[in-house]
Amino acid sequence: MSTPQTVLDAINKLDADDQAAVQSYIDNLKSQAGIVDDKPEIVVDESDAEDESSPSPSPAAAAAASDDLPQYQSGEDYDQATTYKMEAADLKSSGDYAGALEKYNLAIQAAPPSALLLANRADSLYRLDRYHDAVGDCAQALKANPDSAKAL
């Protein structure tokens, strides 16, 4: 994924030292996300390969298909969703990622999730070693907001 033009324009307004610092940060994020030359690096683990003739589901489809990962169905209780998000943030900051995940799940079920909410749940999933589900939430977040830096 390339850096959005609006971000590049903002970077160009900075002095040279700040530009270098921001570019270094972006490069670090891309490295952590496995993005090489603005394209995601695809790593194939042959040990987990099943039947190569059956296609793998997309990350978003895999996350949606996960039995224990609730998705938004209906309802618009934004006040309750906000309460759950605040509780999740507190739990996450104290290191209770499982508790935070439960609250993020409730927030997603209470009202349509924002890209940021999906990215925050993905962060908790990642920290719980649920990488496949985390990638699925990031894919959904980027679909909702392609400029979501947190979902990278």
Q: What is this entry, summarized?
A:
The chain is mainly alpha-helical and 152 residues long.
Gross geometry: elongated
The tally of strands reads 2
User: How many helical elements?
Assistant: 7
**What fraction strand?**
under 5%
* Quaternary organisation of the protein chains: single chain
Would you kindly provide a written description of the structure presented here, covering whatever features stand out?
It is a single chain. This protein has helices at residues 5-12, 16-33, 59-65, 78-93, 97-110, 115-127, 131-144, and strands spanning 35-36, 39-40. Strands 1-2 form a two-stranded antiparallel sheet. With 152 residues, it is mostly helical. α3 crosses α7 (131-144). The N and C termini lie close together (9 Å). The longest helix has 18 residues, at 16-33.
Strand-helix topology:
Layout: H1 5-12, H2 16-33, E1 35-36, E2 39-40, H3 59-65, H4 78-93, H5 97-110, H6 115-127, H7 131-144
Antiparallel strand pairs: 1-2
